[in-house]
Automatic annotation (TrEMBL):
Gene3D superfamilies: HUPs (3.40.50.620). This is Universal stress protein. Belongs to the universal stress protein A family. CDD domains: USP-like (cd00293). Transmembrane segments: none annotated.
Amino acid sequence: MGRQGFEYGVDGPKTIVTGVDGSDSSWRAVAYAAGLARRQGALLVLVYVQPVVTASAAGVGGTLLEVGQQVAEDLLQHIRQAVKRFGDHRSIRWEFHTFPGDPYTGLLTTADELRADAVVVGASEQAGHRIVGSVAVRLVKAGRWPVTVVP
């Protein structure tokens, strides 16, 4: 009667991955995903992918990695403050993941590895993405999970 792999009694997402980079649209995506995770009792996984920039000058690469790590630490501190400010921190389960790479591949890999049920991202605020394609559009085209793009 039931198909192989079908989960009985599971309703809604259990793991929600959302990208955060400090932009206004990414914070709106985090807020949306947090509300969804709280209502569904899902795990919220916040992902900051530290941009990797190729540098020809010696020593610049180390500096860029340090800057990426500092941004990650600042984002995590901001998230912790928001969790405290908006009530009982036990009402939502969350994790913060960060690593260097490109945002599309980082979110795709994280969502696949964690077997995410949904991905939430902010709409791109960069004009150049109309030509190349934003991370959100590329995630939708991957077709692996429902993707919500928050303006």
